[in-house]
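Retry 2 of 3 after timeout on previous attempt. Resubmitting structure tokens to design endpoint.
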């Protein structure tokens, strides 16, 4: 889990990586303990078998030849059986992951509405049935091969060696070649015990080979190259971020999401990103945060390449609200502070941040006030947020953090226009002297920015102040005109005077 924090988001777009990550998470505890226990049993089986064979040899060394001869064949077929088990795990991971995803869709709350509004159950269950059926066929194929290899692995020793030894002992007793008949009779029991121990050793050996091979997924994940975290601040402040001809393409995509984007964002500057859906606005701010590596071009922070900067210390200077924000099944205070409050001062800071974000801290549903858990998944007295309340909690995190740079990716999409206006007023007051980039589809909010970038299909097609873009009468002008009537009907007049821009 600690290592996963250093993984770029682009790696989550790679199904092969995600399969490896899933297997590593599955194996990080149970598989390690299972491997250790199985190895202990295997050593015990080998020691017991060897000590028994030492006793057998003391009676008649020829018996050892009959025992050792089939061992090589047993280990060979045991190895093949272990390989089959490993391949079975590898080839069923993707389908298991898909089946688990569909199961998750049915029990997670966030999917419940769509499942009831649209007839998706049939489609989802068909996909799950196909994944299970494909895994059944794969499992059947490898289980049949494993059965054949296991038969020869166990049969080579348990049948051939044991039967041959029994025949030899009977022959020696029958002909009266040896007088110590009692010892030979005892050796029959010893060989039976040895055979049993060898069988268990083979079973555990096959399991070890399978588990060790599977466990290699975890080892490879742990040994993945990743940026070293210095433990010391690498960036003391963020003064300037420069995009230098940046192009970005998502893994597996055929066309770039951003194309040759260049601009400079300085501390103290308010920038608005506007444009139609799919223009690349969210991708751009995620690149600023270093969540994806650029495909070409450079991102410079205070003149340094972003790839040469410790991301942990760099991101400490940002307060961010993404459109796909998340709240956690933790207390309200913990959701704002993102750590456990230790005293009244922490609670007071969390409360002030929530008030600035217009979250109603006196809501009757908050039975334990700031110590109310934001979910009923683990607490019957928990508080279930609406979309707007969840956004306000995420915005409160920014107010609490008081960062150098603020990124707001449609933080008000679930708010009504008046609540959005008040939120932006509070945010702009709190962000005086800080850098702010915000994305909003309501262009009235964009007027609060000192600089506006109009984006389309991954490119910045227009930029300037609100007045400059209106005079240009291009894409921004057309979009603003379409929305203007709604703004004037639903928003207070003061909103049109933010940033020194008067309503025309």
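Retry 2 succeeded. Sequence:
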């Amino acid at each position: 889990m600690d290592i996963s924090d250093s993984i770029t988001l682009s790696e989550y777009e790679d199904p092969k990586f995600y399969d490896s990550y899933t297997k590593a998470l599955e194996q990080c505890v149970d598989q390690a303990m299972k491997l250790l226990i199985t190895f202990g049993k295997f050593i015990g089986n080998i020691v017991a078998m060897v000590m028994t064979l030492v006793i057998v040899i003391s009676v008649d060394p020829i018996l050892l030849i009959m025992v050792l001869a089939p061992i090589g064949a047993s280990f060979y077929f045991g190895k093949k059986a272990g390989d089959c088990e490993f391949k079975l795990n590898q080839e069923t991971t993707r389908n298991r992951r898909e089946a688990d995803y569909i199961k998750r869709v049915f029990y997670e709350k966030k999917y419940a509405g769509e499942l009831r509004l649209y007839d998706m159950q049939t489609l989802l269950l068909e996909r799950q049935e196909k994944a299970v059926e494909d895994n059944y066929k794969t499992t059947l194929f490898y289980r049949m091969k494993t059965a054949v290899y296991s038969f020869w692995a166990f049969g080579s020793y348990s049948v051939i060696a044991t039967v041959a030894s029994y025949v030899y002992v009977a022959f020696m007793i029958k002909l009266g070649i040896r007088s110590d008949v009692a010892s030979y009779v005892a050796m029959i029991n010893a060989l039976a015990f040895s055979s049993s121990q060898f069988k268990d050793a083979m079973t555990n050996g096959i399991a070890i080979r399978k588990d060790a091979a599977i466990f290699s997924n975890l080892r490879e994940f742990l040994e993945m190259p990743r940026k070293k975290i210095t433990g010391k601040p690498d960036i003391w402040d963020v003064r300037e971020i420069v995009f230098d001809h940046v192009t970005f393409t998502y893994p597996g995509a055929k066309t770039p999401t951003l194309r040759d984007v260049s601009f400079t964002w300085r501390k103290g500057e308010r920038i608005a990103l506007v444009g139609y859906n799919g223009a690349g606005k969210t991708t751009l701010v995620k690149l600023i945060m270093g969540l994806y590596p650029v495909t070409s071009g450079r991102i410079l922070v205070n003149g340094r390449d972003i790839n040469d900067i410790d991301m942990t210390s760099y991101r400490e200077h940002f307060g961010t609200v993404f459109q796909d924000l998340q709240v956690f099944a933790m207390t309200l205070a913990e959701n704002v502070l993102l750590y456990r409050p230790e005293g009244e001062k922490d609670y007071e800071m969390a409360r002030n941040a929530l008030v600035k974000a217009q979250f109603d801290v006196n809501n009757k549903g908050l039975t334990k006030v700031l110590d109310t858990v934001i979910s009923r998944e683990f607490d019957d007295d928990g508080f279930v947020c609406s979309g707007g309340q969840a956004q306000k909690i995420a915005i409160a995190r920014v107010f609490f953090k008081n960062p150098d740079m603020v990124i707001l990716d449609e933080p008000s999409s679930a708010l009504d226009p008046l609540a959005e206006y008040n939120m932006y007023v509070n945010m702009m007051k709190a962000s005086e002297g800080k850098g702010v980039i915000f994305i909003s589809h309501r262009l009235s909010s964009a007027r609060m920015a000192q600089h506006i970038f109009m984006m389309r299909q991954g490119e910045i097609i227009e930029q300037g102040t609100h007045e400059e873009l209106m005079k240009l009468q291009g894409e921004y002008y057309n979009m603003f005109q379409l929305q203007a009537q709604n703004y004037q009907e639903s928003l207070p007049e003061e909103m049109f005077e933010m940033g020194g821009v008067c309503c025309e």
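Attempt log closed. Strands lie at 240-248, 258-266, 270-275, 296-301, 304-305, 318-321, 405-409, 435-439, 451-456, 459-464.
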